[in-house]
Amino acid sequence: MNLSEPRFLWALLALPLLWWLAQPPRPRQHVFTPHLAQWQAAMRALHRRPPRGSWLRWLLLAVALTAAAFAAAGPSRPGTAGAERLVVLLDASASMGAAAAGEPAFARARRRLAQTLAQVPASVDVTVVRCGGELLRRHGAAARALQDLGEPSGALAVDLVAAARAIADARTAVWTLTDGQGQPRLPDVGALTVFDTKGPNAALVDARIEDAWPLPELRLEVDVVAYAEPRSDGRIAAELLVAGAVRPLAPTPVLLVPGQVTTVPLSLVRRPAGGELRVAVRLADDRLPDDDGRRWRLPALPAPRIAVLADEEAGPFVSAAGEALAVEVAGEVVAAHAGTEVGLLLADGGLVPLAPGTVRALTFGSRLDPAVELAPRALAGAVEWDRTLALTRGLDLSELRVERCWPATLPAGEPFLWVIDGGERVPLGVVVDGGEDRASVHFAFRLADANLGLLAAFPQLLRRAFVRCYGKAGAIAATSPGGGAVAAGETDLRTAARAPDRPLPPFAVAERPLGRWFVALGLLALALRACVR
Amino acid sequence: MARPSLPPLPDPFPRAFRELLPALLATRGRFDAGRVERLRARRAVLSQSGTFVGHRRYVRGDDLRRLDWAAYARTGELFTKQLQEDDRRAVTVALDLSASLCCGTPPRRTAAMRLAAVIAGLALARLDGVSIVAPGASNSLVRFAGVAQLPQLLEHLRGLPIASPPPEAAVASMLAGDAVGRVHWISDFARPAGFRRPLLGLRRRGARVTGWLPTVAEDEAPPAGGYLRVVDPETFEDLRIPVDAPFHRELVRQLTLLARQQDHLFAEAGSALLRWPAPRDDAPRLRDHLPIVAALAR
Question: Given an 8 Å threshold on Cβ–Cβ distance, is A34 in contact with B4?
C-alpha cells in the first residue's frame, strides 16, 4: 500500500490521548467497607451501573481514528507495469464474412473481441480500428462496446504489418484480428489472432443490365468467377440462379475456369408488378455467400391508359395504333373525355390544347395552339431522320411520303424527322423533353396525309415513341447498381497468409485509491461504537 | 488501578485503656457463666489438679508428670493418671480476625479487641478462666486463668494477626478445647448467612452464644455523597459509585436490612446479638464501656 500524504499518520499520536480520555473518572476517595454486597444491592435496586471504561468502545474509536488518519494519508494499492493503451486492428474486409463451422469469421472476431475487452482493465485506453471497407475508428466506451462496426465488406486497404509496427510501442499494445486474406504477410508485432476461412468460393464479380423500360424486356450480363478445386476437365461446375420479379427461369449451369471471370448473358422478362430481382451464383460448399449474388429493385411496369383523339378526316390508323400499343405494353384504351386520367395521348389531327413536354402525348398533325394558323404545305424533298437518336436509330423511313404537312403546328423541340425543301430544312417530327419521366412526340402531318402507318417501321416507331414519352426515370441503370463490386483479393479464399496466434501482453494496472474504504471502515467503527455500551 | 492498602490499625490497648481496665473490672456486677455446671459433668478436661478418675495407657507425647509410677511398679506397663477438672466456671471468647473488621473510624477491630479484653478481663476477675478462640492465629485457642494473667491476655490479643478463616473454623476451635462454656462471639457478622450453621451447631451442643457486634459510625451513616471507590478489605473487590441522595437512602435501607438479617440469625439460633457502639475517639472513657458490663450481667 502506498501513501501519498504520509504526514497525516502523525494523527495516530492522538491514540494515547483518546485512551486517556476514554478512561472512566477515577474516584479520589477510597472507602473500605465490609458491606460491599449492600452497596451492590443498592446499585441494583436503583438500576444503576458503575461507570467503567469499555475496551471495545475504545478499540472502535481507535479503529475509527486510525482509518481516518490513513484515509487522509491517501492510501492506494500500487499498480503494475504494462501497456496502457490497446489498439485493435480488426479486419472487416469482405473475406471476413466467410463462414467456418457455420459462423462467419467476423462474428467470431467480434465475440472474441468482446470477451477479451471485458477482461482488459478499465484503465487501459482501448481503440478499435476497422480495417477493410469503410475505415472506422472507435475509441473508449464505444470501442469496448464494439459499437457500429458494420458488416464485413470491401477490400483490406490497410497494410496491417506497417500499421502494427507504427502503432506498437512500450505503452501501446496492438492486437490484430484477421483472416490473413489479401495480405502477403501478417503483423510480426503485437498480439495476433487469425481466423481460418480457407475454402472454395464463387463470386458474382459484376453485372450489367440493360432495361427496356417501360417495356418488359431485360437483358443481363453477369461476370462470375470461382475458386475451388476443379474437376478432372479443369472446370468448376456452378449454377446461376435468377429469382424474383421476372418470369421463372431455370438455374443456368455454368462451367467456370478457376480464377477466370466468365460472362453469362441472361435475357429476362420482367413481371408487370415489379419487385426484387435476385441473381446469384451457386457453388457447392461455398464459404463466402456475401459475394455470390446481386439484387435489384425493379419498379412496376407502367400500365398506361391510352386515349385516342382523331378528327373526322383521320383514318383508322391512330385507333389501330392505340389498340396495338395497349396490347404490347399491357395497357388499355380509354375514352378521351375531359377529366379522364390518361397515361398516353394519341392524337391525329384536330386541336389538342396541351403544353408540349408536360403530357405524355404522340400527336400527328394536331394543332396544339389555337392561335397557330393552319397553312398546309406540300413537300417535294426526301425525308431525312436522325439516325443517332434512340427514337429513330436503326429504322428505315426512306419510304416515308408526306403529301402535306403543317410544320407550324410543331412546338419547339428536338427534331428527329425532317425534309429538305428548297434548301430549307422543314421539320416533320420533334421531341419535346419535359423531364426524366415524361416527353411528348409530335409529327407535323396526319397519318392520313402520309404513308407512315403503312411502313414496316411504324410499329417500332410507335413503340419507341411510347418509350420516349415515359423517359428513363423508372429504368434500371444499364450497369450494375453500385456497391456490389467484389474487392480484388477477397474472393480467393485459398491463399490467405498464415501465422501462429500471439496473446495479448500484460496490461498496466493503475494505482487503486483505498481512501474510500478507510472512510467506510471508520464510519463503520463509529456506528458500531454507538451501539456498544 | 493499584490495590489499596488497609488503613493502619492503632494500638488497641493504649495506656489510657490499660489504666481504665482495672477500674472497669472493679465494677460491681454479676457475671453470668451460664450452665457451666451442667457441662462440667460431661467434660473431661485434662488438668494438673483435680480428682483422680482412672488410668489410660501411655502414648507417646503424654505428659511425663502424669505417669503413675506405682502402677508401673505393679504391672510393668506405663499408665497415665486421668484427673477430673476442678469445679471451674469458664468463658469462651471467639474473636473474628478477618480483614473486614479493619474498616470503620476508628477501625472496628480496635473496638473488637477492647471488647474482648473487657469480657475476658471480667471473666478472669470474677470467674476462673477464659478461653480465647481466634481462628486464623497460630494458636487459635489459648486459655487464661486468674486475673493475674490479664497482662498476658492483653498481649495475646494485641499480637493476633489479621486472618479470614470461615466461621466454621471458630466453632471447630471451640469444640477442640472442650471448655466451651458461655461463648461470646465478637465479629461484624457482615455476611450473616455464613454464621447460620456454626450458630446452630453450637446450639445443638448446648452452648449459649452471645454475639457482640461493635458498631462503627459507617454502619448507620454511610457516605452521603461523592464519587467513591468502595473496596472490600477481604477480597479487595472494588466498586466505583457516584453517591447521591437517592443512593444514600437506598444504602441505608440495605444496611438496615442487613441488621435485621443479623438479628434474625441470632434469634433463629436462640442467641442474643448485642451491638456495642464503639467510642469514636482514642480517649477511652469508663462510661463507654459500662454497657458491656451491664450486658454481661443480664
Answer: no
**For residue B165, what are the domain limits?**
15-37+88-297
Which 8-state DSSP code applies to residue B52?
E
* Cα A20 from chain centre: 77
Residue A351 is classified by DSSP as B
Q: Is B107 on the interface with A (CB under 8 A)?
A: no
pLDDT digits (tens, 9 = 90+) for A69-121: 999 999 998 888 888 999 999 999 888 988 887 889 999 999 999 999 999 98
The pLDDT tens digits for A416-431 are: 999 888 788 889 999 9
Q: Which domains does chain A have, with CATH numbers?
A: 2-25+32-78+513-531 (no CATH), 85-194 (3.40.50.410), 201-298 (2.60.40.10), 305-470 (3.40.50)
Q: Determine the Cα–Cα distance for residues A401 and A455; give it in Å rounded to an integer.
A: 10
What are A460's three cell numbers?
A: 417500332
Chain B nearest-CA distance from A25, in A, is: 9
ipTM: 0.81
Does residue B115 belong to any structural domain of this protein? Answer: yes
In B, minimum Cα distance to A28 occurs at B228
Please provide residue A115's backbone torsions phi and psi, each rounded to the nearest 5 degrees.
-65, -40
Give the total number of structural domains in chain B.
Answer: 2
**In 3-state terms, what secondary structure has residue B292?**
helix
- How far apart, in whole angstroms, are the C-alpha atoms of residue B156 and residue A467? 154
**Cross-chain residue pair B227–A28, CB shorter than 8 Å:** yes
Cis, bond preceding A427 (omega within 30 deg of 0): no
Strands in A252-256's sheet, in edge-to-edge order, are A252-256, A236-244, A275-282, A293-298
Q: Residue A405 above 80 pLDDT?
A: yes
Q: Give dist(CA A467, CA A343) in Å, integer.
A: 12
Sheet harboring A85-91: ordered strands across? Answer: A136-139, A125-131, A85-91, A172-178, A191-194
